Amino acid sequence: MERKKIARGAVCITAICVMVVLLAAPIASAQAAASRFLGTISAISGDTLTVKPAQGDARQVEIPSSAKIERIEPGQTSLSAAVAIQFSDLAVGDRVLVNLDPNSTAAAPQALRVVAIKQADVAKKQQEDVEDWQKNGVDGLVKSVDAAGNTIVLTRRVAGAQKTVTIHTTPSTLLKRYAPGSVRFDEAQTAPFSAIQPGDQLRARGTKNADETELTAVEIVSGSFRNISGTVISTDPASSTIVVKDLATKKPVTVQVGPESQLKRLDDHTAQFLAARLKGNAAGGNGGGRPNAAGNGNGPPSSPRGGGGGLEAVLDRAQSIQVKDLQKGEAVMLVSTQGASDVTAIRLLAGVEPLLEAPASQDLLSNWSMSSGAPEAAAQ
User: Fold this and answer.
1) Is residue 231 packed enough to be buried (19+ CB in 10 Å), middle (13-18) or exposed (0-12)?
2) In angstroms, rounded to a whole number, what is the distance separating the alpha carbons of residues 141 and 118?
3) What pLDDT digit, counting tens, does each position of 199-251 carry?
4) Which end of the chain, N or C, is surrounded by fewer C-beta atoms within 10 Å?
């Protein structure tokens, strides 16, 4: 689910950040001279670990009885919080920082020190982050940015009504931004406050006031995405591309469908239902959630609010389709990466003719754009 994705992605990034901090931590001079590498344990055989770095080939390292083995919790940034563990406590899936012994004369590399983040601890932290994003997160479109006051005003649709939330940032607020052409939270990059612009999608978590009109953020992820409503000119299943005539610009746009793109089709009844809801004619609001890039509701870029009555649940249950299922002249709505004439689809929705007649249909698109990678799949 979307919120779980962002939580897992966030934990993955946190774990890597912790390891980077560990790399810079002052240690004994012999250790400082040792080479180091980060990775995930992929196999254990006798006293040898096979560790797969994020990039490059797997590496094998022997762990002699003299090696120091420690465990640190996800989110910790100081070795002072590490505790000693036994070699037998290590398991496949654990993330490790390995310091190699520069003085070893053995044929195979030997470890001087191993610092581990246990896979079980990561899973626990992921669940905690899911709950925190659900409880303390907000999302919406950036209405305005006040650099002098370090504040951001979001607009968001709640129960059919548009509301605003003022996001306050502090020097300790973690600011991330989706990489160009990507909607994966684990690929989000640290970015300055100045990168946030009106019209961006933004999600934040932190401390809310009583009526949830203000939030002091501990973490923010933002991105700029393109919303397109148009008609299909042609499709090429072999190359996974669709050419769409953008109704706003009247120009053709080539849409690339990638492995992570999601294509859905609404049936006539569902399309009419959503159109009525967007026009404010359906009772019950939107269930407190708005669709995002994965068809899910409020929360970080990878998390649904849950429940079955919101717009996010309706979109999630829509029929999945492929490029070959689209017909020439068919109306579609899609959220994509930024681009002038060529874009990559994040989510595409067909069967939308009734929705295009609803003025709030653009809100549906705008709130259907945050990542499927943005904070569960990312850490897998």
Assistant:
1) middle
2) 37
3) 888 889 999 999 889 999 999 999 888 888 899 999 999 999 999 999 889 99
4) C
169: nearest Cα among 199, 134, 142, 188: 142
Question: Residue 216 corresponds to which tokens in the numbers above?
Answer: 């002091």
- The residue among 246, 235, 245, 200 whose CA lies nearest residue 220 is 200
Nearest-5° Cα angle at 333, 328 to 334: 110
Q: What domains does the chain contain, in order, with CATH numbers? A: 2-125 (2.40.50.320), 136-223 (2.40.50.320), 226-379 (2.40.50.320)
pLDDT in tens, 7-52: 555 544 444 444 444 444 444 443 443 488 999 999 999 999 999 9
Say how many CA atoms lie within 13 Å of 22 toward its Cβ. 32
Q: CB count, 10 Å around CB of 365? A: 22
CA distance 378 to 346: 16
What is the phi/psi pair of residue 21, to 5°?
-60, -40
**269-302 pLDDT, tens digit each:** 888 887 777 666 543 333 333 333 333 333 333 3
CB 139 within 8 A of CB 150: no
Q: How many CB atoms lie within 10 A of CB 80?
A: 8
Q: What angle do CA 30, 16, 62 make, to 5 degrees?
A: 45
Q: Which residues pair with 346 in a beta bridge?
A: none
Question: What pLDDT band is residue 360 in, cutting at 50, 70 and 90?
Answer: low
